[in-house]
Write a structure and sequence with these properties.
This protein has 183 residues and is an alpha/beta fold. Helix content is 38%, strand content 19%. It is built from five helices and seven strands; from the N terminus they run αβββαβαβαββα. A seven-stranded mixed beta sheet has the order 2-1-5-4-3-6-7, covered by helices on one side. Helix 2 packs parallel to helix 5.
């Protein structure tokens, strides 16, 4: 009986999307290869994560275009994009909105980085950000290194502070990489 209750409790925790520990994010976790995917950007052009090899990539998932928190986060990245690009990293926002919605969001807020469309939520599922029962992503930020390995995952994202946090994280990871190469 106790085993059945324990199994039921674990099932409920997983069904509700509640995870204990920072390493559980679907198939995307720190130190593992980033799940590769292909999708369309806000212009309708093809995007293939595999082609980002050799470059630092920031992939931030957000719930829905034009909502207050998502707009705050996108505009914060817009305003801080040069700091991140000086570190050799590029930012991509991704939600389950379609290409047309992403294009409107991009244009309405004069964004200066690409938005990716994931209308079938397959990318969100691969990264473990899809909310249970609905086709919306949780707010999560992934830092992916030039070898396409996930190096950092932020599950407690403050939309306004995310770009500063990302820039600091990328800088620290790059410094650690340089230090390990000198050894």
């Amino acid at each position: 009986m106790k085993a059945k209750v324990s199994m039921l409790a674990r099932g409920l925790v997983l069904a509700c999307g509640v995870f204990v520990g920072a390493q559980v994010h679907g198939q995307a976790s720190v130190g593992k290869a980033a799940p590769l995917f292909k999708t369309k950007d806000h212009r309708g052009a093809d995007f293939d994560l595999a082609k980002r090899g050799g470059h630092w990539t920031v992939l931030y998932f957000y719930p829905k275009a034009e909502t207050p928190g998502c707009t705050k986060q996108a505009c914060a990245f817009r305003d801080k994009i040069q700091v991140i690009r000086k570190l050799g990293a590029e930012v991509y926002g991704i939600s389950t909105d379609d290409v047309a919605k992403q294009a409107d969001f991009h244009r309405n807020h004069k964004l200066n980085f690409d938005l990716l469309a994931d209308p079938d939520a397959k990318v969100a599922e691969a990264y473990g950000t899809k909310m249970p029962l609905v086709k919306i992503s949780k707010r999560r930020t992934f830092v992916i290194d030039p070898s396409l390995v996930v190096r950092a995952v932020d599950v407690d994202v403050d939309p306004a502070a995310d770009p500063d946090r990302v820039a600091t994280q990328v800088g620290k990871l790059q410094a650690a990489d340089q230090a390990s190469k000198r050894r």
